[in-house]
């Protein structure tokens, strides 16, 4: 005992926990029977409780959307937003596209999109391979700027022209449409024979 | 010493010699096949980095990737597991294994591996991951597995040690479960000697496949290796196992929960939502039971951590168990639907499985072999230093591998969902995302090479250890205990823990049949019963009587039966409603394939296209913008096997039909880079010279008809004629675009197939066929 004023609390002797007691032995391997770690047990219990709550929320009370429902909800919102944006910017009509087709910056970005996605079938210079020649004056699905946009955007399934709108988005689709309009009647040498009608 | 197996008599001391030859054979086979499997892994990794490494059609990525996975799982880990089981079981139950059965098991298994190594590059495949082998080989696998099971259970029946140690529990669970997984998933209708179609179609096939695939990971790569850990870890550390009760709890929890988790491979797909949710929540519940194994392993090393510095065996075991803990934390994380939305189909999953395969399986194998060889050949390890170098090379190799795949997977997942200012995809071309992660593919290759180099060092080290050494003939003096009076089996099977578990399970099971409020109440009741019941069991336990589990451990047959029941519950609960009960297709629909399209689909299967291309568009706007309308459950209902895929090294193909002209496909198959600069797809110009045998079309259509695809007898009879007609149609169409190709070529057949993918039952009018979702 010390002779200062601090009092030392009396500690009652508790027996040490029953740890590390060998309970079995197999082929020289001994086995303790220690308690399960509490944090491990709580992890297990928490996961079980989570599973019950998750199942109840999604399949019994149906408080939350299943993946497909969530997607459909998201889609409706996205469509509305997209329509709003197109309405306010109003870029996609024959007039704006015609203007854009004379804008060097738009043509340059349209050309880049063309090189990456369209050149495979229409050739890098637009003179046609699998797809028709775009540098003559003939058009199968219409050569007016809004018609060109519609063909690119919605595709022509029967002819193997994919709908690029969903994949490229309206900005890139407009740019590539403007570019296509700008190369009309450039008549690149060695191009594919004209298909469709020459428009006035 | 040259004792032979003497029939053990109860109450008489007998000297037995362990039959360790199969341990030596299986160990050597594991190492040899491990080198082969990893070498093929390096080749396929190289092929992903540079397409030029696809030097021959038979050695292209789509055919070699299944060879890599099968070799690593069934040849490398399979043989390692058998070595561990033969060594430890004999010692734990004090019985000599049967020689003939062991030999049949060993040579039968090696023959199956050789058959796989020959048929897979030749393109014979059932098209289901890790179950690719064709039906005759499947039958051989079942037969050899039964031989192994008889050998094992007969040893248990003759055992001289009454109680079964935890390692044996895991072996029992592995053997019975793998048998049922293999048989149920491999059910197929044979068409020719090496051609069959899965009897399940579409979503059903997907569910069965991943019930199998996930539990092949569980019961082939995990539980037997846990058993091996329980034997070799305390042996090598010379320390007691940390906790017997932890063994009990995590064993039963693990095998019961694991079997439910398969659908987490099909999250956000067209699989019914209830099955997806079960897959997710059981995966989350699997976290703790998995970590129970890790804890019992690591805590066994208490007091032996010093050996980490000196003993390569402990080094590998400690790191292996740690990797196990990492992978089993990552697994539940990836099973959360939203995380899965990002990670599924990407390289993150590849990283995850390699943390398990290289980190857990590979390290446990290395630790076990470094432990075994000196004991099997009575020689000190040739070089501890070399083993240390192996350890560091392998560890850094795995880290490089896993980290590069994390980066690749997350990068690609984020790029694919990134949108530009106008709400459109920021990276509309899939190949852009591939090019972004190419450097990571090279990093992965370096990591893999490091691991492989380490593994070869181990092979050399063990060879030098065994070379010229004498064969050890180990044995033990055993005494089969005389039959003693013991508790009636009814007392065991109706033991209170069983009754409580059954009661809780029954209450939870009512949820499937009740209305909303009632099922909610029942879930709560189940929770209350479980908690109160557990407390009551603990309070009323008789401290002096042997605990209930101790009684079960003394009865091998009863233990096996209870294991089967625990495993069956999850399988039955998921497969019966989804597969056996014929639910009408509620969404989508598929037109049965025309005969030539079916032939083309077989070309697609043969080339293993499904290894890189999914056919499952998930309900995310970034997926539908890129690939088209969400895939519905009916869209693949006649696909035997299903081809949803599990990895997208290339884009999804579910709505490919009609998207591009046939000449586009021709050019793309001949040289993918002509169409898509930077693509790593192998060229398939051999489709031009390859020929489809249309004489076999009728048999294929008839086989499909017999498993429920609505073909008429006329369809079967006219199969060849229809195939010719369609071939001529496509060849003519190609000729218009200046491409000359034979109407019965592989090229025309596969074009017919890809143009039919996603086709609806009623042909829509031109112009409205591709009603793209925006």
Quick overview of this protein structure:
Chain A has 200 residues and is mainly alpha-helical.
Topology, please?
The complex is a heterodimer of chains A (200) and B (774).
Chain A: E1 22-26, E2 29-32, H1 38-60, H2 67-89, H3 94-100, H4 104-117, H5 119-122, E3 138-139, H6 145-154, H7 165-183, E4 197-198
Antiparallel strand pairs in A: 1-2, 3-4
Helix pairs in contact in A: 3-6, 3-7, 4-7, 6-7
Chain B: E1 13-17, H1 21-49, H2 61-93, H3 99-122, H4 135-157, H5 166-186, E2 188-192, E3 195-198, H6 202-237, H7 244-258, H8 273-300, H9 307-310, H10 312-334, H11 337-343, H12 347-376, H13 384-417, H14 430-466, E4 475-479, H15 489-493, H16 496-509, H17 516-540, H18 548-553, H19 556-580, H20 595-606, H21 621-627, H22 662-670, H23 672-675, H24 686-689, H25 697-706, H26 713-717, H27 719-736, H28 746-754
Antiparallel strand pairs in B: 1-4, 2-3
CATH architecture of the largest domain in chain A: Orthogonal Bundle
The CATH architecture of the largest domain in chain B comes to Up-down Bundle
**CATH homologous superfamily caption of the largest domain in chain A:** Cytochrome c-like domain
As for the CATH topology of the largest domain in chain A, it is: Cytochrome Bc1 Complex, Chain D, domain 2
Oligomeric description of these chains: heterodimer
Spatial extent as radius of gyration of chain B: 27 Å
What spatial order of strands do you see in the largest sheet of chain B?
1-4
What name does the CATH topology of the largest domain in chain B carry? Answer: Cytochrome C Oxidase, Chain A
The largest interface is:
A-B, 70 and 84 residues
CATH class of the largest domain in chain A: Mainly Alpha
Describe this structure as you would to a colleague.
- The complex is a heterodimer of chains A (200) and B (774).
- Chain A is mostly helical.
- Chain A contains seven helices and four strands.
- Chain A has a two-stranded antiparallel ribbon. A two-stranded antiparallel sheet of chain A has the order 3-4.
- In chain A, a hairpin with a 2-residue loop joins β1 and β2.
- The model of chain A has no long low-confidence stretch (mean pLDDT 84).
- Chain B is an all-alpha fold and 774 residues long.
- Chain B folds into three domains: 13-478, Cytochrome C Oxidase, Chain A; 489-580; 595-754, Cytochrome c-like domain (Cytochrome Bc1 Complex, Chain D, domain 2, Orthogonal Bundle).
- Chain B has helices at 21-49, 61-93, 99-122, 135-157, 166-186, 202-237, 244-258, 273-300, 307-310, 312-334, 337-343, 347-376, 384-417, 430-466, 489-493, 496-509, 516-540, 548-553, 556-580, 595-606, 621-627, 662-670, 672-675, 686-689, 697-706, 713-717, 719-736, 746-754; strands at residues 13-17, 188-192, 195-198, 475-479.
- In chain B, α8 (273-300) runs antiparallel to α10 (312-334) and α22 (662-670) crosses α28.
- The radius of gyration of chain B is 27 Å and the shape is globular.
- Chain B starts with 12 loop residues before the first strand and ends in a 20-residue tail after the last helix.
- Classes of the chains: A mainly alpha (200), B mainly alpha (774).
